[in-house]
Write a structure and sequence with these properties.
The structure is a homodimer.
Chain A (H helix, E strand, L loop, with lengths): L3 H8 L3 H8 L7 H13 L6 H8 L4 E6 L11 H15 L3 E4 L5 H4 L3 H8 L3 E5 L6 H8 L4 E4 L8 E6 L1 H14 L5 E5 L5 H16 L9 E3 L4 H14 L5 E4 L2 H13 L9 E6 L2 H5 L5 E5 L1 H17 L6 E4 L1 E4 L11
Parallel strand pairs in A: 1-2, 1-3, 3-4, 4-5, 5-11, 6-7, 6-8, 8-9, 9-10
Antiparallel strand pairs in A: 10-12
The structure holds a DNA duplex.
Chain lengths: ~350, ~350
DNA sequence: ATATAAATCCAAAACGTTTCGGGAGGCTAA
DNA sequence: TTAGCCTCCCGAAACGTTTTGGATTTATAT
């Protein structure tokens, strides 16, 4: 494999000059540049990124720590769409992505910082981890530039991108209220998710705004899983037949709730209106299709990458970005039919 | 950031010895090893992967060239599931993954070989490219170890993993025949896919085996897209009302075909039986759920990674792996109702 | 003609590892 | 006693770049 040294020998110049020629420095004459580049081409030279990284102490790569990159995460391709956005932006800006496989047992022993420092990534994007995750506490203490998705940590070296979850949840609940519903339950995720807190906030505030009473026993956790949500919803609906609508903190859980309703012979949306959150691919394909709060997952990834790279360049811009959501009305919600 | 040199200074040994101690070489005494490791720990040392790679000429990373890692590829999370499998295996075997963003315009100028050589990946896995892709021809000529998914190229440095597509297609068609269908059309992908050729082969051979006539005009291409498949199927069904079943070379296209049928007021499965291919996530959630040929996408990824890494270690094993498929019967197929 | 500035080029150090080829000292066997 | 063999250690080169701090030549101004 041809190196810069081979080129130098070939054109009869120093390796310094060759390097500077290839990198278009001002202090090498146009003719020399041209000659050097021709020889480089002829020798089929490609620069050694590794060697460059070593001396420059920059790798032009950003690490990806995504906990959902495993078998179970497949259903809700949230992570995948985010990844797609990250990938596009990174590509546009000349960065490569390295996936850390945190799933393996060996790697699990390593700390977040070790992982990043060994691979010498310039920065990291983290998605899909719980607020209780061991990695998270490490992030704030380490000084590795980092962008979190849906976890609001803000320091000199870490930023985040998220959506307006309070507003999103309010939109969902207000939609139900406008349809005439007053008995609205809430299927939340779990306590270790920032978005859960915020969506709860939005749910409560929408009820309050409408002057509706709050039933604490109607606020349940489905762990963001369809299976769990189904079980929980089954009990909830069985014990509280007065409920006419459920707002779910994720589409996947909404699917679980629909299953539970079906088992209880409750018709969606005639007897029970359901609105989800995320607008995952399944939402529009399932029957009945899901009314949901849509968030632009691709954009979240894209913005995360852009934010991180801007932080790497100069650390002056604010370290957070807030994206909008919007209500998508489909078939799982309908006017409350007063009997 | 602490280096091996700092450790050497601290313990009063040469950097050679420190290096060999950390790597558990036989020629350093147990006591010294222990001392070195303690100091390393104390100094919060983490090895510089970059420097190591430079001298060892191995990066312990494998490159990923997946053309579907863009917005459109999201529907069919085939790629994602494959990626998940690759990620797991790579993690287990101590390799990291780097995603090449071939989507960007800048990068598009670079050849496959340049891409890999610059990043100094040890090997590459390629998925989701057409047989007409410029990258493909480069693969065979370059000597970079490479594993292709669903493209049968076999040389000293390149291998592949795929499923038995002929058999898979036969299973699908035979299922339809067993249900009493005789007028069976085939919605194929496009001519630039190896799997399309094979599935066509299976389709034809199943018909032949059953002594059924072959209608060439019933074999159409849907480009693996639901939208295209819908258009094509609409015409096909309109012009050939005698068709009672369609075998589709992908689930996504099957969805398109269902849409077309619905528009034409043809009921699935009562009037038209449909079997897909892939068993993507949507297949089981959609109404009617899809009878399909299931392939283990996770396993394809896992095997691809394993194959590649085994090729890197020693180049003696055969460079190909064939996976099984199986028929999953759901709601989109039913007995032919003879009128 | 001389001093100054501009245009080109280069030697050598640095980045953090691994590894080759040895070398010193102690032990064993003849 | 001596030769040979372990055991444990080290100096220096190598990997392929970038960058620093001049050096040399050529053009320009005085």
């Amino acid at each position: 494999m041809a190196t810069i040294k081979d080129i130098a020998k070939e054109v009869g110049l120093s390796i310094t000059t060759v390097s500077r020629a290839l990198n278009d420095y001002y202090d090498v004459s146009p003719k020399t540049k041209k000659r050097v580049k021709e020889v480089a081409e002829a020798l089929n030279y490609s620069p050694n990124h590794i060697a460059r990284s070593l001396v420059m102490k920059k790798t032009k790569t950003i690490g990806l720590l995504v906990s959902d990159l495993m078998r179970e995460g497949v259903k809700d391709n949230f992570t995948f769409e985010v990844l797609t956005g990250i990938n596009k932006c990174a590509g546009d800006l000349g960065y490569d992505l390295v996936l850390f496989s945190t799933s393996s047992d060996k790697q699990k022993e390593k700390t977040y910082t070790q992982l990043c420092r060994e691979r010498r990534v310039d920065g990291v994007i983290i998605s899909g981890i719980k607020t209780s995750d061991r990695y998270l506490t490490e992030v704030v203490t380490s000084d590795i530039p980092c962008v979190l998705i849906d976890i609001p940590v803000n320091s000199n070296s870490v930023g985040f991108v998220t959506t307006d979850n309070v507003l999103g949840a309010m939109k969902a609940v207000q939609h139900l209220i406008e349809l005439g519903h007053t008995e609205i339950a809430f299927m939340n995720g779990h306590d270790f998710a920032y978005v859960s807190k915020k969506r709860l906030e939005g749910y409560l505030s929408a009820l309050e705004k409408a002057g509706l009473p709050i039933h604490n026993e109607w606020i349940v956790n489905g762990s963001f899983l369809d299976s769990t949500a189904e079980k929980v919803a089954y009990e909830l609906l069985q014990n509280n037949p007065e409920i006419t609508a459920i707002f779910c903190a994720s589409d996947l859980m909404a699917l679980g709730v629909i299953k539970a309703a079906t088992k209880l012979n409750i018709k969606v949306p005639e007897d029970l209106s359901i609105v989800g959150y995320d607008d995952i691919l399944l939402a529009s394909y399932v029957t009945p299709s899901l009314t949901t709060i849509s968030q632009d997952k691709y954009q979240m990834g894209y913005q995360a990458a852009e934010l991180l790279i801007s932080m790497l360049k100069d650390n002056t811009t604010p370290h957070q970005r807030l994206l909008n959501t919007h209500l998508v009305i489909r078939e799982s919600t309908s006017l409350h039919n007063k009997q």
